[in-house]
Amino acid sequence: xxxxxxxxxxxxxxxxxxxxxxxxxxxxxxxxxxxxxxxxxxxxxxxxxxxxxxxxxxxxxxxxxxxxxxxxxxxxxxxxxxxxxxxxxxxxxxxxxxxxxxxxxxxxxxxxxxxxxxxxxxxxxxxxxxxxxxxxxxxxxxxxxxxxxxxxxxxxxxxxxxxxxxxxxxxxxxxxxxxxxxxxxxxxxxxxxxxxxxxxxxxxxxxxxxxxxxxxxxxxxxxxxxxxxxxxxxxxxxxxxxxxxxxxxxxxxxxxxxxxxxxxxxxxxxxxxxxxxxxxxxxxxxxxxxxxxxxxxxxxxxxxxxxxxxxxxxxxxxxxxxxxxxxxxxxxx
Length: 333
Known about the structure:
alpha/beta, Rossmann fold, seven-stranded parallel sheet
């Protein structure tokens, strides 16, 4: 009589309640078909996870998996992160153990790219200023400034040809715009294949109508957009940040925005959130949103789908689609 194949023990480790967003019913069923999922679902801390667990599906709220946590998980072989960056959970102990780590950053990249593309459309249509003027005059005067309207012929500068940056490039192909990219890791050949012009950061800042940030926050990129870089931007240009607030010097951008010379759409300020007294909340040339570009609501399950795909591949003996290695941590978000 054939025996039932052994399923590797697994557990979810994330904020309690998040699992309902991360795993649709169908995805939960897929996971249950390839692993023996421990209960409760999810666990809130590594100390609660059974020692026999070989597979962890993690998400927002997963604490660092350091030496102490890993000592209690002696047979752990895979961490499939159902979210973007793994920086908050990886450790030297995790890498030293040779545990496979995967990320759903590519799934989280989709809504960020969509948000960025939508923001660029709104910016080049002057939607935010038109909205404010229309509200002020209550329909009694014309509020459209034709000189500020339209995307055609605009130069869009992307800082970083990251996963998100490339998805934005793909979406911008539907517009009649010129796209330039500054990225030290992008080759001229790759830029040509993407249909963009590769330029240095100084040229991008000085010539772009919209500058959109898609670089990771590293020691080398912190405050890469400071007073000098902002001063180089065109009068009336927009800075769009859906990446990390630390890429921009907050004091420097605040000074420029208060002066009215530049405009900004900031989804990821620094600090996050900004202090309640920050002038950026009230300036007419600033659109400030509370870090909503990434996966939210129904979009979160896309990351769960990818994490479970990684688990399925691992159990089947296939290589991961999106592995994260220690060496990659010095260049990824």
